[in-house]
Amino acid sequence: MRFEIKRFWDGVRRSLPFLGIMIILTACGEKIEPISLQPESIQAEGIQTEGIQTENLDQSDVDAFKSFVVNLVSQNETGKISGSGFIAEIAEDTVYICTNQHVIQSADTWTVTFGDGTQAEGEKLGCSQVFDVGVVKVEKDRIVEETLEKLHPVKVDLEEWCKARDNADSHVTVKVYRVGEGGLTGECQEGTVESVMAPFEYGNGLNHTKMDIVLESGDSGSAVFDENGNLFSMVVGVTYEEDSKPARWGIPLTSVITSYKEITGREWISLFQDY
User: Fold this and answer.
1) Is 153 helix (H, G, I), strand (E, B) or coil?
2) Secondary structure of 70-85 as H, E, C letters
């Protein structure tokens, strides 16, 4: 497995340069128009699909997930932009947040709203040249002390993720916990992973995670959690093809991890283990 992962990453690094991405998402902010194979079918407020469940969070969910999900808001020359993200790592002086490149690429300074509703100023650290991943950093001394004490990085179970990836018949239930400018909103969207690694023509031809989960404006960069609360993917976009239902896409867990290292130079999670 160690050799396979190394070969995967070597292949990714040789891929075509990132093409200012692909993203077709109704979730990246008020001023960004989604790209679609069928543009007239897109609703600005997001696409609702029958059969996909919206849940209200109970207090245990709120307490657990508000520790590592965030909302991101900024301004650029065209107006307000917004998206979502999650805490990948808490270092000695800095909190590192993962989101999408297409969310943060046009602004350097961001208002980060944590799950409890408190805010801090963050800065764009950088973006991947391969996947639609960006990182925002927040210095700890900018975060309310009471909030800082409760923050945690997202949980990751790489072994279980690899099992799902290698099992074509695996049906993983996933959830997105929505965060607004006031903190965790008290709702989540639930769906199913159709394919952990599926060809995605808008992402340099690299494999992405295909899901049937409903996404709305502002969901770009959201953490996609499995039923055990572990990070499974990160929201990236929605494609629409004629005579077929919308496909929701996420960046695979291993690609989020390698992109994070590419941007920060830090090893959040080592992939070189025997899974």
Assistant:
1) coil
2) EEEEEEECCEEEEEEE
